[in-house]
Structures are given as C-alpha cells and as structure tokens.
Automatic annotation (TrEMBL):
Keywords: Metal-binding, Zinc, Zinc-finger. InterPro entries: MULE_transposase_dom, Znf_CCHC_sf, Znf_PMZ, Znf_SWIM. Residues 591-622 are annotated as: Disordered. It comes from Deinandra increscens subsp. villosa. This is SWIM-type domain-containing protein. Gene3D superfamilies: Zinc finger, CCHC-type (4.10.60.10). The lineage of its organism: Eukaryota, Viridiplantae, Streptophyta, Embryophyta, Tracheophyta. PROSITE patterns: ZF_SWIM. The keyword Cytoplasm does not apply. One of its GO terms (molecular function) is nucleic acid binding.
Amino acid sequence: MSRMNVGPVRAFNMMREIYGGFEEVGASREDFKNYRKKYNNLIGEYDAEMAVNHLMRKKEYLPNFSCEYFTDDDNCLRGLFWADELGKKNYHIFGEVMSFDATYRSNKYSMVFVPFTGIDNHCCNVTFCGALLGSETTESYVWLLRCFLKAFFKQPKVVVTDQDPAMTKAIDLVFKESRHRFCMWHIMNKLSIKVGVRLCNSTDFKKDICNIVWTDAISSEEFDEKWQEIIDEYNLKDNKWLHDMFGIRKSWIPAHNKDELFSGLMRTTSRSESENHFFGQLCNSRSTLVEFLSHYESALESQRHTHRKNDHDSRFTNPEMKTIWWLESEAAKIYTRTTFLDAQHEMDMMRKLMCQTYTPEGDFVKYYIKDWTQVTTKPFEVMYRESDLTIYCECRRFESFGLLCRHIFYVLRQMDIREFPKKYVLRRWRRDVVPNGSNRNDDSTVVPALDDGGRALLRDIMYANEYILNKLSDNMEELSLYKEHVESYMQKADNIDFVPPPPGKRDRFGELTGTSQNDRLPVRVPLGYKTKGSGSHKRIKSKQEEAIIKAGRKQKQCQNCFEYGHYATTCPEPQQKNKGAESVNVANVVDKSKKGKGVESTPQSSVIGSSTRVLRSRVNKQ
C-alpha cells in the first residue's frame, strides 16, 4: 500500500473492507502505525545509501539500466539520475521533442524531482527518465544533461523549458545541436503584469496580441509587421519587456519556427506540469528517498499500462468512418486511434476549402487553396508532383507535427489518390511502432546478444501471440489446443540450463537496505537544501488581508517610555530602574506632549505628583 502513497490508517481500513472485518485483518490499527514508524526509524540516516544501492543493483543486473549520482565534500547526496531500458527505447522512438521541469516537495529533503517528458504515438505523456537534484544551479543542470547524453547517446531535436537562467545556460553548453524553445504560456502569463492590467482588460490589446502569437497560419514576415502595428497602435514603444520578447521571438513564436521539424508538437511546458501533477499524486513532502523511488516506479508502471491499453484499443477496435474516401480507411489501419481522429478531422474540414486556381511550375503543379476556417485571407499554396507523389503545403503542418494538413488531403482527393503516401507516414505515429507488452519483457533484455534480425523476429512473435489470443478469445476449444502447444515449448525451455545469478544470502532488511561491505563511504542523506520552490511553509497573505489584520490589532505600548509601537525590551530610551525615575520620565513625556500642542508647561513638581498618582492607580488595579 505504501507504494501507492497510502498511509497506515487508510491501509488498515482498506484491508478491513477487503477481508470483511477487523478480526480478519490479523493486526490492529496501532500495529500498522508502529510498523510504519519502525520502518522509517530503520531507514534513518541510511536513506540515501539505500536509494543509491537500489538503483546501482539494477545497473549491475539489468543490461541497459543507467544510474549516476554525485555527492558533496561531506559525501551528502547532491544529485541522482536513473533511466531504464524501456525509457531508452521510448526516447529513440518518441524523443524528437522533450520537455523537463523541476517539481518541488516530492521528498523530505527538499530535493527537486526532474522528469524528462515526451509525447508518444497516442499524444500522451511518456517518461524517459528521472532525476533528483539538491540545487537548481547551472552546474547541477550541466551534470544532469551530461548524464542524460551519456545514457541516451543522442540529443533531442527540440527542448522546451521555462525561462530559468540556469536551465538555459546548461542547455546551451550541453545540447548544442538541439533547438531550445521557451514555454509560450509562461511568457504570455506575464503580459498583464508587464504591460498593465488596465490596458489588457479595457482594450483589445490582449486579444490582438494573442491572435498573432498563438497562430501558425501566418508567416514570420506577417508576424513582425502585425507586431509593430500593435505596438504603434497602443503606444508601447518604450516597454522594455515587449522589446526583449520580440528580440527572442525565434525561441517561442510559432510563426518563426514552423519550418523546423516537430516544432509544433510541444510549445509549452504543460506536458511537464501534467507530469509533475501525475507523480505528485503518489508522492508527498514527507517521503524518504526509498519511498519516493517506490512511488516513482508505481506511477511509471501505471503510465506504461495505459500505453499498452491504448495500443490494444488501436489495434483491435475499428473507429467509425465519416466519409467513403479510400484514404480515411487507409489511415485507420496505419495510425493509432488518437492520431487517426486528428487525420479524420482534417479530412472532414475539406468541405470548408475551395481551390481557386492552379498553375503548372516545371514538374510541379501549384494549387491555391482558400481556407475559410483560418484568420488569414491569403490562399494556401500546395505544390504537388504526380510522378513520385511529392506534396507539401505552405502551412507547414507536416513539418511542425508530422501529420498531413487538410489542404494536402484536398489536393490528394482531387487527384483521386487511393493509397496513403508512405513517405508521409512517420514511424512515431504508427500503431505498431511499439509491440504491445514489450515494456514487461523487452527483447533486448531477454536475449541481449541478438542482432537486429533476431530482435525483429521476437517482435513478430510477440505480436503474433497477442493477435492469436484476441482472435481466439471466444473459442475455448482452440484456446485449449494453443495452450497445450505453448506448454510443450515451455517444457523445452525448462530443460535449458540457464546461468544462475551469483550466490549469496541476505536477510530481508539486508536486501531492502542493500547494505554490503564495500570500499566506498556510505552516501549520507542531504541536509540543509533550500530550493526555489520549497517555500516557507506559510500561506502568503494579500495586502488587503495584512491591512485588515493591522487595523484590528491592539497597538503595543512600552512600559518604559509609555510610547506606542514597541515594548520595553526594545525601547530606544534608557531603562528606568525605579519608580522615581519612571515618574520623571513620564513627566518629560507629558511636558513634551504639551509643548507640541502649544500648552504652557507646568512646574515639574506638580507633574511628578500627577504622574505618581497615575502609577498608584495602575498598581491598585493590578
């Protein structure tokens, strides 16, 4: 239960319902609490050592598992990176675009959790690897990205982050071949603050600026021209923030990078934010590192189970067709369900297009397609060559997302093309790009010495096994025959002599902690880390709330000088040791106050007498 971030009391109540009563559980609620307490006490200061040993043992026994860590001068853990084999396989398939961001309060040591996130063939999040960092400095991120490059061997084409200076500098130093893009949402979220709330709410400024920022239907020249028009219209030439954002427009404006491959797949860090929320459901700020790794593995297992389910639905269910066009049924056999629905939507939108004219240009024919759904009035130019089915559109949707646009589908339908162009079907969007079940028994893990042909044979066997089980699910007689056939091969496999792992016996706690005799010093738990997002654990109060509290608060009065605003211990005046001196001090205060009001000062003896009476009355009241 602890793997799912379930506490001892809730775990006891769940087991009570499962087994049917308190007596059937076999333990009390206090036993559950005590076990959890003893477990945490047993971990104690060996938490970091146990977490590192857990990952290092995986690196030793799993052929393609990566793990790196580094410590400070006191041997306290400062950084931990890990990546398994399936994450590496997913990266080589879906790693064209990647996003990573730091999330906070995932463990009791305030180490930030940094998951590396991509997009799979179902347009869902896929986690490539994870890391824990003790600080968000440039040096920490440089170490992290170098570990990533060492494990995955190649750089992503596009990296999306926020405007964190440490991340930006580290990416420029390590990922020199990648295109770094800033999160559009983080930039546009600052618009009201940097420009002014009144301008954004009382005018059409925000609407006008969003119309040219978020669209990719205009060219880079049109964007620059319309940006300057908006700046001139609202008299914002002296706004430094807008000037700076326009200077880095190639790093976040879609109109300036739509010609780059896969630039439109990820424009914000919302994928990372969603990933942080996903892992945050199973983690908390009181978790030890051992518990955090257990929660991470449970969350990753859930994510991969969802991917297997989506693969199964895409392969063995048929979507509903909206047209009788040949290419729609072809796309249903090629793409995953999510990707097919996107292509189907583009085909359905062909009814809102119109071909204005076409002109031959050498081997190509240029079509001018009017799109009534776009804000631009300019027709889209589509170039088509019939000899080899080469076609590309001015909207650059295929370059940005890897999927054909409605303008290309319109031309293909006009030319009566009945077979989907294979050159425009990217491998990352195919429904058979990852064999179902490969994340449980990976072919390279089972037989790491196989070449590419052998691995392809294993993939075909796994796919054929899944296909047979789905086809024969309603025929019990055939399933029984197939089971006997499989069991006969299982007996042959049992007779094969496998090399056993190195012998060794440890008790349960020894296996859990990973304690063993080694030459290196044990890794100590991190202490005293303060990250940017760890916070002060106090709720931030608004200015209005602070004013209300201050107005209703009783003012402080000093018992030394009788002024308001401080106490006697913080009084700037010398401390009075007796009542006589205190009376003289009160007389001076009264004298000063009367002089400030324009009243003549009274003799000091009368003032002292009145002050003494005031002090006596206060003592009698006490």
